[in-house]
């Protein structure tokens, strides 16, 4: 197994681990995180509580599983919004060219001029805290990312012979785009989606950490970090576990994205 295959395999394994934990939490967790057991607070790992408990006596493993569900769901829907709007917008700009293309790209430049996380904080602060507003805030800034990637990739293919042949055969621009352009840029869009997915998890964790993301009774990794910040001196594990979950998930998605890029890039095929 060469380096690219190993990177992809490791990233896929980490991603599936946390995705599996999130899906499993829909039907089962070791303990109910809505149940407080003050008598069992801040216990260490044991056969009953595999990772220990927090300051309310809640099982940390169960909270990590439910937190994975919230964090991954927010990031996944936000990426879906970006792809659903950004890709058609970018392909349309590549087809139309001219003034419309220029207007869309300059609007993208305007959005990119502001840090995405800072803008997401502003939107959620104005709209109010909550998972739904976090999804909208993160999703809005995925739109220009996918629009720019789709436009650039489509323009790179615009002079290919098979596209010209399809147009000569009488196919319209929409049909040419759907049948010939989109399949040939799909790998690039998928790689970008993994990158935006990891950034979405970081953004959701940041928003929840400052109180603008998921609200009780929902929990997320960022909210767990927020609750643990005042207990770092005597219970550092409360911050260690969610922090490690964020790091490993983001690392897994980035490794998987890098591996996919290398495996699907014809220039890199056959290299170690």
Search tags:
elongated, transport, 272 residues, MetI-like_sf, transmembrane, mainly alpha
How would you explain this protein's 3D organization?
By secondary structure, this protein is mainly alpha-helical. 71% of the residues lie in helices and 0% in strands. It has helices at residues 3-24, 60-96, 98-112, 116-127, 131-140, 143-157, 161-168, 173-209, 221-228, 237-264. Helix 1 crosses helix 10. It is elongated, with a radius of gyration of 22 Å.
Span between termini:
9 Å
Backbone CA Rg: 22 Å
Oligomer: single chain
Low-confidence stretches: none
Total beta-strand segments: 0
Instruction: Give me the strand/helix succession.
Output: HHHHHHHHHH
Mean pLDDT: 89
Beta-strand share of residues: under 5%
The helix/strand class is: mainly alpha
Tally of individual helices: 10
**Major pleated sheet:** none
The rough form would be described as elongated
Q: Report the helical percentage.
A: over 70%
Outline of this structure?
The chain has 272 residues and is mainly α. The protein has 10 helices and no strands.
């Amino acid at each position: 197994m060469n380096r690219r295959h190993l990177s992809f395999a490791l990233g896929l394994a980490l991603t599936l681990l946390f995705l599996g934990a999130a899906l499993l939490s829909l039907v089962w967790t070791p303990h109910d995180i809505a149940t407080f057991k003050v008598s069992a607070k801040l216990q260490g790992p044991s056969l009953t509580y595999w990772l220990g408990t927090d300051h309310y006596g809640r099982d940390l493993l169960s909270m990590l599983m439910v937190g994975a569900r919230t964090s991954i769901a927010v990031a996944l829907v936000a990426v879906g919004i970006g792809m659903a709007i950004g890709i058609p917008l970018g392909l349309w700009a590549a087809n139309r060219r001219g003034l419309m293309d220029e207007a869309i790209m300059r609007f993208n430049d305007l959005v990119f001029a502001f840090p995405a996380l800072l803008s997401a904080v502003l939107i959620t602060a104005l709209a109010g805290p909550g998972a739904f507003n976090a999804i909208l805030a993160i999703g809005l800034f995925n739109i220009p990312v996918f629009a720019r990637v789709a436009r650039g990739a489509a323009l790179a293919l615009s002079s290919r012979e098979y596209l010209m042949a399809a147009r000569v055969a009488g196919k319209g621009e929409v049909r040419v785009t759907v049948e010939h352009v989109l399949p040939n840029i799909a790998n690039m869009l998928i790689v970008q989606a993994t990158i935006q997915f990891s950034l979405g998890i970081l953004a959701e964790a940041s928003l929840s950490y400052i109180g603008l993301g998921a609200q009780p009774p929902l929990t997320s990794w960022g909210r767990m970090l927020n609750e643990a910040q005042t207990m770092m001196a005597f219970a550092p594990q409360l911050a260690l576990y969610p922090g490690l979950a964020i790091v490993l998930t983001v690392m897994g998605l980035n490794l998987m994205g890098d591996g996919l890029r290398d495996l699907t890039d014809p220039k890199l095929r056959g290299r170690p």
